[in-house]
Amino acid sequence: MNNNDYREVTDEEETGSDRGTVVEEEKKEVAAAEVAGEQEDKENEYEDICYICRRPEHVAGKMIKIPNNISICQDCMQKTFDSMNGPGFSMDDMFSMNMGKMPNISMINLSDLQGFVPNNQKLKKKKPKEKKEPVIDIHKIPAPHKIKASLDEYVVGQEHAKKVMSVAVYNHYKRIASGQQDDVEIEKSNMLMIGPTGCGKTYLVKTLAKRLDVPLAITDATSLTEAGYIGDDIESVVSKLLAAADNDVERAEHGIIFIDEIDKIAKKRNTNQRDVSGESVQQGMLKLLEGAEVEVPVGASSKNAMVPMTMVNTKDILFICGGAFPDLEEIIKERLNKQASIGFKAELKDKYDKDENILQKVTVEDVRKFGMIPEFLGRLPIMFTLDALTEDMLVRILKEPKNAIIKQYQKLLAMDEVNLIFDDDALAAIAAKAKEKKVGARALRAIIEEYMLDIMYEIPKDDNIGTVTITKDYLENKGAPLIAMRGCPAIGETVRPQVASGE
User: Fold this and answer.
1) For residue 33, what pLDDT is reported?
2) What does the pLDDT read at residue 166?
3) How many domains does the chain have?
4) Which residue segment(s) compose the domain that 303 sits in?
5) pTM score, two decimals?
6) Rounded to an integer, what distance in angstroms lies between the CA atom of residue 79 and that of residue 6?
């Protein structure tokens, strides 16, 4: 038996032991309180939504809370009471739990309803007016030349398009920041971009939104249909913008919506059926482009009874539409040939057949003949084109932008401590292959990925590899990439012999 089995514990030891336990418990309580406080603050950021009518708090008014964090607006609660006081229902049914005769109530487990509204369907509360700061500060709006300089870092070429976009965006946000100060009302600077596939339309808009730090929603016009038909409603484009703004209505109302493939909603020719995805969509988009209060679903692309709704004003939302308009070139050629086919100075009909940038000669009338209605074009006052990518531009795209494809692969191999080099002839060969595919810059990644697959698979096997050089012969399957081991001279370099002093 150990003598310490019956050792007397002093008050100091007991106090110290208890103190340690108390301190640990206090730390746990403080941590739990902090977590609960953070969770409460996060919940307070969002509005309550009525469980019955699905209206948010700023529309339905003050909510009534019932157990399990369920909110009911006063209108729905009053309707329920009125129904209970009506004929066919007695209080005996309620006390006897005859739920079949109770309006708006069914046999459900209220514990299953806790947290029934996900965060992506909740709206953020509006800030109080006294603390509200302007969403757009006129003094912080970058000048057009600064916007273009930011675009130059990521987008090669397209000088005219970048200049037009910079000025239009600058004027748009100046219009928002200035507000309605006098009788002169400035119209929105909605844009229509026309350019071949892969020329950088989407990338320009993404870079623009990132530079301005505004929410951006990108949607495809091919999925849009008239309300009531299978497909996305026209208001769904605003719902995507609201989701991009983290359900902050005020921030979403100053964002950018890019509608790609806008040429796919052109008026259908020679059809006897209802044009639900063409002219009808153009008609439905008129109010959005001009500016109107629209009711949009929160956290969903279509309206239904289980999705909360909110109102969004599109008056200050910048709409940018883009499309390739594949048959527009023939319309332009027809117009130009018609104008130049009369008189002694008549030009050959095939003069414009090999003109890759014939889209630069487009007019509003050409786009109208393509199938876009005049009312729709009138709400897109700024129309410009993008140049088709040449081989030289494709080479520049490979290596010049901040996040150029070549730089991405060099960074990947640098993580394995390997230096990646592309010969100029190799870059030209890649650009030529991409040009043949006729899909613009999108082909560059696929081509490089094809030839880099084996290299990126084999390199981690050998720690002695220091440099890999991609050559034109390798791209044409006439040879292998040039590999230099660590400690060896780089390819193309020679070791100069050491010359003794005095010789």
Assistant:
1) 56
2) 92
3) 4
4) 138-385
5) 0.68
6) 73
